Batch of 2 targets.
Target 1
Amino acid sequence: MALSKRRKIFLALLAVCVAGLIYDRLQPGSHAVGPTAAAGSMIPDAYTAELEDGLSAAAGAASPTQPHNTLANRLEGLAKAQGLDGMDVRDAFRPPEEWMGRTAAEQPAPGPKEDNARRLVENRRLRAILVGPDGSSAIIDNRCLRIGQQLDGFELVSIDKRSVVLARNGVRVTLQLAAGASGGEDN
């Protein structure tokens, strides 16, 4: 089997990398780990001391059955040393609450039909209509709704080019796009 010039170069480069890795692992005294091993001119001394304090706090908090140098323990110790609480961190992948539909417990109490419809038209604005391969969506006051979802007890029943229809207990309400708002298709 004849190897091409390109394959020979690749194999030579691979051999050099493997030899370097083996030399690095077998070299005596190269197993120093931690912030002191990484301390160089790029890491400020004040930060290195703070990091070492956090790591030593994490090592003291680790259980005897669990290794003290796990990343989770080091981060936890560093957070404790700096007085950080991870419980109040917002989930970066969760959409804002105003984008989500309300639950049944949050729905307003039913009242006179016409009064609720009038309040919906007065208090809510249709901002945009989105048309996509998965169906249409309407953005009403910064909340994205699809057909079947509810807003103030009214169910979104249809989406047109420039309007949406919401219904509750036989009462139908139409919200129109304001001039200059974005519709799904322009004429």
Target 2
Amino acid sequence: MPHWAARTGVPVGAAMSSPAWRWPGRVSPNVPVTVPLTGVWIAPAPQPPVDCATGVAATADSVFQIGSITKTWTATLVMQLADEGLLDLDTTVVTYLPDFGLADSEAARSLTVRQLLSHTAGFEGDIFTDTGWNDDCIEKYVATLATDPQLFPPGEMFSYNNAGFCVLGRIIEVLRGKPFDQALREHLVEVLLGDDPLRDDVALLLAERRAGDGRDE
């Protein structure tokens, strides 16, 4: 929904049908469905494309990257470990990851799991180093944080931290003894849904968006 609709209280249906939704002179990205507080499902019409650059039409089977929604999954996996007595939220991260480091070694030693969960870890969180897609990608990523600067002491204030949730992902891997993707499927997705709806095929994600744009695969 356009930010002005959310802030001004414009009804969802009106926001979806508004010309502003289509961005003057541009094609808007796809938003397949909106669920307002009333629980009534509202689908935008006409359906925007899945990719603005190629104009490929979206379908019910279109694959999307869902970004930070996955932080809820990660937090749930951490809380499962806590419920099972395998992890203490107020224990330091280095208890579970002895090699964990930051530019501020004192902060790295004192940082707790709870502070990671609550975005109060204090280190720079917008670190987007590409460490690949293999099973060791999270382990490799966390190792790169050894030079990550500290913005404030752990627990002092809130600062949204993407990197911190990668550290949590590595803790999950170590305590479960399996890659994060496998832990997610076995301990959350399959438990809730009985099946695996996750699609992590990057080639599939890109192929759909490239359809009809004339580029070689």
